[in-house]
Fold:
Amino acid sequence: MRAEQVPRERKSDDAGAVEVPRAGDRRVASGCLWDACEALLASQADPEALPRSLDSLLAAFECDGVALHAVGPQGRLEPWSARGNWQATVGDLRECIGVPLFRGRERVGALDLRGRRGQRWRPDQHSLVRTASGALGAALGARLELERLRRAPGRDAVTGLADAKAFHQRLLEEFSRSQRGGLPLAVVTIDLDHFAALNARYGRPAGDQVLAECALVLKVALRDGDFLARLSGDEFGVVLPDCDLAPARRLAERLRHAIEEHRFARAGRLSCSAGVASAPRDGLDATELLSASELALGIAKKAGRHRTAASGPSHTH
Structure:
């Protein structure tokens, strides 16, 4: 996509709208920003995804150049990708913006923007840059963390997440803490729908890439204190400290929608199912709690998939 082109409408846009927004429209610009975050999560499987997303940002920010940098293994900023015109000639002075990208308090990269000749950055563009710094920082930080941990002990080699053994150990620790303090604790289990068919159609390497992208999507959507792991196959587990059933169910829905709204590099859109359980309501020990969550996941699957179910009398939605 060239910078002067209007980017495609986002999935949240009104499909019946007749008017085509201009490139500077805030709604379209926000859509371009989301495209960039989505591409950052998918770019391991699709090398062209990130350059395309930066082309979208050229339109979103109405500028001549966009460059993304990431913090490398040595702790220094390294160039990742750049699009547009970055060649400078004598006397060609332009306004530029450089903003650091943070994930929490950790600096993970930087975003540089080079304005057009004679351009002055508008307040709405400054606001969009601030939004970009948070969204891109979260996506980039999650990707760098999982890439770094993929070969570490106790981590799943495909996704970089904690493995099943580490998950069970963390669940035991959090259960003991919740019992001592009288605090709630919840578990969410998430399973991709029809993943075996996806593997059969595209092959296991494509299936592994889907799992790696799922890990990134889930990681971005969770709080820092939540513990995410790959349990087995296409199943993920989340330990939610200090979380009761109702908020855990809302979070499970958010995670499910995050996966279903993500466009995977090769497989496209996927659906998933989720099960939720909380202690002490659904289990008096860690094993019972996880079993209750697995039972709820099974209920969601039997009810037609593409939904969340909670253990106990409340059913699915």
